[in-house]
Amino acid sequence: MKAYLYTRDDQVRDYECDLQGIVNNANYQHYLEHTRHKFLEKYDVSFARLHDEGTDALVARVSIDYKQSLRPGDYYRSCLNVCKEGFKYVFHQDIYRLPDLKMCIRARIDTVAVVNGRLAHCEEFDRLVQLSEEVKNNPS
Question: pTM (2 decimals)?
């Protein structure tokens, strides 16, 4: 497994699965979003505070490659790195089944910062991109 800035482990709940006994595709987006929110929380980035200061972080595009299905009771590891492409903050997120680390999904989430109605750079997100670059360049 490659180096990630942030990882978190969780377990599939029965109600997240469909009649086929696998996680419904839409629930993977919930897993990804929850991971991003926990990541931001860890680094003291608050959506509410940013909004109060005039900055809104918005998802612009989501792309998910489904590789292997998770099933009820499975444990998984949700992993995240972030980079910057112009005005976009791109979250590269992978989910692996535990304990065998079989890749379940690979996702790319493009986000933008909107400040007072205009695309802009966000210092707090720039700091997170820098941290991600450090992890990528110096894996432990």
Answer: 0.92
